[in-house]
Amino acid sequence: MGFLSKLFGKEEVKTEELVLKSYMKGKVVDITEVPDPVFAQKMMGDGFAIIPEEGKLISPVAGEIIQVFPTKHAFGIKAGEVELLIHVGLETVSMKGEGFDVKVSAGDRVEVGQTLLTYDLELVKEKAKDVITPCVVTNMDAIEGINVLKLNENVDFSQEVASVKLK
């Protein structure tokens, strides 16, 4: 504990839980319902997915954009100890960014509710395998578990959807 924290009686407080807000308007489903084994079998991590009603993706957390995929359909976000991957649609990589308008870059700090991407939902329905959009914690070794609060419910932007319990 440093001098100033002793002086003011403040210790570093480690966040024990991270709340994830809804990053899309739509229906929340269990990660095991995603029609892709990489997500459904939790190969990349645990989480949940949203079936979107409109083509807009916002940040579920305050943090840093650590990756924007070149094909514009997926984002890595770091919030404290938690690293998230949000993947818009399934097999959207084959669209090569068509219909996607990214609003952030790697290294950007983002706030909850900040727009990351707008996209043509109808085009994704037409050209990709599915519009379902998973959000997974990719560094599962740092967390104890995820509690999805709104399973099988429709959510609007920035509603509390899940909590991630840290080790």
UniProtKB/TrEMBL annotation:
<dbReference type="InterPro" id="IPR050890">
    <property type="entry name" value="PTS_EIIA_component"/>
</dbReference>
<protein>
    <submittedName>
        <fullName>PTS glucose transporter subunit IIA</fullName>
    </submittedName>
</protein>
<dbReference type="InterPro" id="IPR011055">
    <property type="entry name" value="Dup_hybrid_motif"/>
</dbReference>
<keyword id="KW-0762">Sugar transport</keyword>
<keyword id="KW-0808">Transferase</keyword>
<keyword id="KW-0813">Transport</keyword>
<keyword id="KW-0418">Kinase</keyword>
<dbReference type="GO" id="GO:0009401">
    <property type="term" value="P:phosphoenolpyruvate-dependent sugar phosphotransferase system"/>
</dbReference>
<dbReference type="GO" id="GO:0005737">
    <property type="term" value="C:cytoplasm"/>
</dbReference>
<dbReference type="Pfam" id="PF00358">
    <property type="entry name" value="PTS_EIIA_1"/>
</dbReference>
<keyword id="KW-0598">Phosphotransferase system</keyword>
<dbReference type="InterPro" id="IPR001127">
    <property type="entry name" value="PTS_EIIA_1_perm"/>
</dbReference>
<dbReference type="GO" id="GO:0016301">
    <property type="term" value="F:kinase activity"/>
</dbReference>
